[in-house]
Structure formats: structure tokens, C-alpha cells
Amino acid sequence: MVTTLLSLEGVGKTFPSGTVALRDVRLDVRPGSVHGLVGANGAGKSTMIKVIAGAHAPTAGTMRWKGEEARWRNPGAARNAGIATIMQHVPLAPALTVLENVFLGSPGPWRLQRGRRAELDRLLDRVGYAIDPDAEVADLAIGERQMVAILQALATGAELVVMDEPTASLADAERQVVFDVVRRLSAQGTAFLYVSHFLDEVLDLTDQVTVLRDGTVVESGATAAYDEDRLVQAIVGRDLLAAERRAPTPVETGRPPLLTVRGLDSPAGVHEVSFEVRPGEVVGLAGLLGSGRSEILHAVYGADPRARGEVLVDGRRVRRRPRAAVAAGMALVPEDRNAQGLVGAFPIWKNISLPDLCSLASGRALPREGAERRRAVRAIEDLGIVCPGPDAAVTELSGGNAQKVVFGKWLYGGARVFLLDEPTAGVDVGAKADILDLIRGFTAESGAVLIVSSEFEELLAVATRVLVIREGRVVAERAAHETSEEELLMLANGFDGGGAPDAD
Ligand SMILES: Nc1ncnc2c1ncn2[C@@H]1O[C@H](COP(=O)(O)OP(=O)(O)OP(=O)(O)O)[C@@H](O)[C@H]1O
């Protein structure tokens, strides 16, 4: 009997640029186990997954699949052997149906749907999930798409499913569905390699865990032997007071508001939203996925041309255009930082100064390279960007570190009103704490922050006040020190503090 499905022995990966992403890595994945893989941004998780999935060839060591040495020539070879990889941004075909997507990677004439339908029924039965086979993937919620990706992996007969942050953009209920399916399938013998920055998930779901730091394995063993503190210690190499609640910074209520929003309304799902943010305040928007929280930020920033209502900075009305918002001192860090994009051909320093070349130019026609570079060095330091230096190409950064560069683009341009949409999504625990500190820093300098986060614990750690958003409306307001995660969750779900549904 095979006791190890996949093993890595002394595996290394050095990129042509000279970056050593993996060094002497050892890993054993047993059949039917759920193996967690954790590590800071840039620790080497994606590189390891890509080696396992046949997308990168290792430059040292040996990989074995069911005891035999495996040298995948390409991802197809790994897939045929029984390894399916589900990357974070699920590459499904949106114009095709669920049925068509599930069998997209399977050999044979998948358009002959009769047999496929029965096969999909069997798969759905196996995972204990229901979905309309004829629904178009474009119409599905993110959680449902994730399920289609899992079904796709199973349809190829995978014995090992590698999941890269599968729950990063999922709401709580959708996470539970993914967890249930992972548990059920592992009980039936499918193994999982589960990469996540959510340590509570890893502790809850996995039975083995491996911690990567700077490309090497620093811990590996039964998950039961770990708690969150020990994992954090192993990941960042030091003790960390993550998402610690601080006493709220006193805000002088006598001061006039820095940001005023009146009667904001948009067909995108924003209804009669009015609020104020004073200098020194961090106001959190707490809502479930689809509640309209991001749409509110976009409308405030003038990025939603259909929005109506008034936005004032320092008492002066701002025209509803992003350019006018920037001129008035606003900065938006959007949730979809991938689509926002980095210029791949530019090094880190040029990317960071991109939105703000005018102030760096200081009256000259061309920006000053020295000032641009200093700004990049500061961002690398403040945000803990793992890279060889400001000249590194952004294409060579790990996912989380690329996110930090995008974040850095908006930080240092002299903005006073920050609109932050999920500022810590995809970043590791250490960087999370650094980013929260930076946010506190803006307000210490009399800035104002409006922040959206799916993690209510994080909102409460950084915000002075929280507005609860549901169906595009502000349905409740709480001082951060007078509420709890549980209460916010109840309110966001449409229950008042007493547990009864709100009267709408
Ligand atoms: N194509 C590449 N060329 C050169 N260096 C690379 C390349 N891809 C990744 N690296 C480097 O390899 C190291 C490991 O990156 P990797 O993407 O594996 O990290 P990660 O643990 O997945 O991080 P994250 O949590 O941010 O996704 C980083 O220093 C990164 O800059």
C-alpha cells in the first residue's frame, strides 16, 4: 500500500534571475489527507505549487508520485497523472454552462452531453452539492464558481487537488460549503494541498501542515500540534500581535468633517447613503459580499458615472470624477488590484510613483528619479515588500508582494482621504499588522479613512466607527469599542441586536 502520494525530497528552484525561491524542500502528502501549506508573502508557496503542477521544473531535488520519480514535462503531464490544481483566479469559461465547464479538461467529445450529465450527477452526489448543470458560469456567484472548479478537478479523476487560497473572496457561508466538500472528499480518499493565509481555516480543516519561510520548510507536522500563535511564530519568525484592538484614538468631534457624503444613490446598488468622516477618524464599512460596500467607495470616488448625490472634502463639493477626487485629496485602493494592474515592464520604483508623477516632478517637466526611488525604498520598508530592491521587475514578485506594490502606489501621494477596499486581502499575517499600523498612521496625521473589509475582526481593530451596510444602505452605526464581531455579523445579515429580523 502506498503511504505517500506525493513527496518532495530536497527540491530547489532557482529562477534565471538568480532568485532562490525554494531550497532543499521536503514534503510528504498522504492519500486522503488535507495538507495545509502556509508562509508569508514571497515564502515560495506558489512556486512550490507550480513545481508540483508541472508549470515549473525544479532545479534541484526529486519529486515522487506514488513512489515513482516524477518529472512533469508540462502541466498536462501532472494532470494526467492525477494532480489537479485550482488557482486563485478560477479560469472558467464564463460563456459556457456548468456542465460544459466541468468537462472542459476531460478527454473525449464533451459535447455529447448525455453521458456527461449522468457523470455530473454522480459527481454532485459524491460532493453532496446541488447546482443547475445548464446555468451559465457568468451568472454564478463566486462561491458557486469555486465549486465548478472543484467539480472540474474531480472530473479529471484527480487524486490530489491543490488549492491556492480557495476562500480568498468567499463569504462565510460559501467557505463552509468548500470546507464541507473538502472534508467529504478527503474521507473518500482524495488528498488536498491547501494554501491559505487564513490560519483559523488551516487549523480547522487540515490534518497536516507545512510552514515555508524564505523558500525552506521551517516546520511540518500534525496540525493538532499547532495553535495560531505557534503558526504565526513559524511564518514570520517572530512573535506578532496581529489585529490587536487598540484603544480608539480620540477624535475631536468639534472639528468639521473632512469627508461628507450626502444622499449618495446609484443604480449599481447604493441607496440614500449619507455619512461624515472627521479628521483622525477611520470609519469601517461592514457588510457581506454583494451588500454594496465596494460600490459605495466607488461612488464616493466618482468612479461610478451613474451615481447621484453630494461628496464634499473639507466642505468643498467635489465633482463626480476620479480626477476631481484625486485633486481634492482622495485616494482609492480598489479591491481588484490585479485588474488595476502593474506595468510589468517597469521596475517597482516606477510603478509606485506612477499615479503621482506631478508632485514628484516638483515644478520640472520630468519627475526626479531620486525622489521616485526614495519613495519606493520607503514603500518597501513600510509594507515589507519581499524583493531584491526597488529595481526588481514587478513580474518577478510573489502575488502578495505585487499587491503591496499596488497599495504603495496610492499611499504616498499626499492624499488625505483614503478609500480602502480590502487593503489586506492576499497579504500575510505579518504584513497585515504593518498595513493596519500604516492606516492608523494616516489618521494620526489628520487624514480620514473609509475602509471595507470582509474580516470584521480587522475592522474593529482599526476603525473608530463602523457603518453596517446591507442592500446598499447604511442600516446601523456603532462605535467600534461598543460593538463586537458577532453583533456586526447579525446586523449585516439583517438581524437587529435582539435577534429579530429588521423591519424594512
Ligand atoms: N517568475 C519569477 N522570476 C523570478 N522570481 C520569481 C518568479 N516567481 C516568483 N519569484 C520569486 O520567488 C519567491 C517566491 O515567490 P512565490 O510566488 O512562490 O511566493 P508565495 O509564497 O506564493 O507568496 P504570496 O503569498 O505572496 O503569493 C519570491 O521572492 C518571488 O519574488
Describe the structure.
The chain is α/β, with parallel strands linked by helices and 504 residues long. It folds into 2 domains: 6-236, P-loop containing nucleotide triphosphate hydrolases (Rossmann fold); 259-492, Rossmann fold (3-Layer(aba) Sandwich), CATH 3.40.50.300. It is built from 18 helices and 20 strands. The strands form 4 sheets. It has a 6-stranded mixed sheet, sandwiched between helices. It is globular, with a radius of gyration of 24 Å. It starts with 5 loop residues before the first strand and ends in a 12-residue tail after the last helix. Mean pLDDT is 85; it is low at 497-504. The protein binds adenosine-5'-triphosphate (ATP). Adenosine-5'-triphosphate binds at residues 15, 17, 19, 21, 39, 41-47, 386, 396-401.
Estimate the strand proportion. 15-25%
Assembly category: single chain
Q: Calculate the mean pLDDT score and round it.
A: 85
Work out the count of structural domains.
2
Q: What is the CATH class name of the largest domain?
A: Alpha Beta
What is the count of DSSP helices, taking H or I runs of 4+ residues?
18
Rg, nearest Å: 24 Å
What strand order characterises the main sheet? Answer: 6-7-8-3-9-10
For this structure, what is the CATH homologous superfamily of the largest domain? Answer: P-loop containing nucleotide triphosphate hydrolases
Biggest beta-sheet profile: 6 strands, mixed
Helix content: 25-40%
Low-confidence stretches: 497-504
Associated small molecules: adenosine-5'-triphosphate
**CATH architecture grouping of the largest domain:** 3-Layer(aba) Sandwich
